[in-house]
Amino acid sequence: MESWPDGAKYEGDYIDGMKEGKGKLTFADGSYYEGEFKQNEICGYGKYYWPDGKQYEGSWSHNKMHGEGLLIWKDKKKY
Fold first, then answer.
1. Spatial distance between the Cα atoms of 30 and 50, rounded to a whole number of angstroms
2. Which residue from 45, 22, 47 is spatially nearest to 33, judged by alpha carbons?
3. CATH topology of domain 2-72
4. Phi, psi at 78, each rounded to 5°
5. pLDDT at 59 (0 to 100)
6. Rounded CA gap, 27 and 75, in Å?
7. What's the whole-number average pLDDT of the chain?
């Protein structure tokens, strides 16, 4: 596990000292991402959860939502 002074932490796979494979990255604000990492970046398929109940499930590239995915709001509306 890797952690930072602000309370953020990463639990998951590493290759050559970099986040690679499956893992969970929790941010200081309580939001978190669970899914795939490539060369220290969020990349591939994963889910992101915000503290307000919103969530995104889908494709990621270079730490950004990219390609197909589904954004679900707290009231269960989907986009």
1. 7
2. 47
3. 2.20.110
4. -120, 145
5. 98
6. 23
7. 97
Q: DSSP letters of 19-53?
A: EEEEEEEE-TTS-EEEEEEETTEEEEEEEEE-TTS
Mean per-residue pLDDT, 58-66: 97
* Residue 6, token pair as written in the block: 């602000």
Q: How far apart are the first and last CA of the chain?
A: 34
Q: Which two tokens stand for residue 71?
A: 């954004």
Residue the block writes with tokens 């270079």: 62
Q: How far apart are CA 55 and CA 47, in angstroms?
A: 7
3-state secondary structure (DSSP) of residue 67:
strand
pLDDT of residue 6: 97
Parse the chain into domains and list their residue ranges: 2-72
Reported as a single tens digit per residue, the pLDDT across 66-75 is: 999 999 999 9
